[in-house]
Amino acid sequence: MAILLLLQRRQQVTAAEVARELEVSERTARRDLDALGTAGVPVYSVPGRGGGWRLVGGARTDLSGLTAGEARALFLVAGPAASVTPAVRAALRKLVHALPEPFRAQAEAAASSFVTDPRRWGSDRAVPPLPRFLGALQDAVIRGVQVRLGYADRAGSETRRTVHPLGVVAKGPSWYLVADTAAGRRTFRIDRVSSAEPTGEPVHRPGDFDLAESWRVLADEFDRKRTPVEAHAVCAPSGMGVLRIAFGGRLEVGGPTPDGRIEVVVRGSDEGTLAGELAALVTWVEVTGPPGVRAQLASIGNTLVARYG
């Protein structure tokens, strides 16, 4: 694509110019120019001094329809602060470098216009490096081939299985593989993958598969397994904003009560932890059940009174 855009912009290029512009060898440049012709692009060579490669009749591609805004967006993805692999960044930058000159100044400025700092305030934890097998698994998804996967669970026990890679998802600092297995659709944390060997066999990809929707279903299921305890409560309308901030996706909002409060359900990992989170919201929230969470709240209240009078 980058070579094609170069041909459109300059009308004629030599293999040496392509090699210099795209930072490849002249041999690679000639091979790729030949590949364009094999792929059906009407490109031909002009022999002799002053010759080079041209497009028959000035043939064009839809990529030349990129707007200035789209060019800037490509450079945002390819910029030094972007969280993409070096190979992706290099490929995108080479592509955009082939755009017409009026697009390039602002596009290049966009590459250095922002910085992403994934660390939270108050945290000095270093950003984890990209998982070792991320690139191999992305490649398997793109090529549609099955993978023999070595995987260590949370306890460190390692298993091997053949999976059908369907997509890769970044969740915060963690990367996950969504794949079909003999036991159904599963997710695998890629930093726990110990080996990834493509088998060459094609992936059986459902025709209606949608990665975003599949991830939403899997993530909801996983989140519910992490937070199996539910507490029922009523909340004053003035406290709903605080409640949403505190519990996020672990909050389900119901209807109003006769006294004007709002029925809610919140989830937590266990009764003690959930009671600890709810204790801070006592100004707005009254827990109605289960009894175990209410008992934990009473215990917290007694401890506070005993300590602080």
Automatic annotation (TrEMBL):
Residues annotated as domain HTH deoR-type: 1-61
Keyword Protein biosynthesis (UniProt): no
Keywords, comma-separated and alphabetical: DNA-binding, Transcription, Transcription regulation
Pfam families linked: HTH_11, WCX, WYL
InterPro entries given in the database record: CBASS_pafABC_assoc_protein, DeoR_HTH, HTH_11, PafC-like, WCX_dom, WH-like_DNA-bd_sf, WH_DNA-bd_sf, WYL_dom
Domain of life: Bacteria
GO MF annotation: an example: DNA binding
Protein name in UniProt: DNA-binding transcriptional regulator YafY
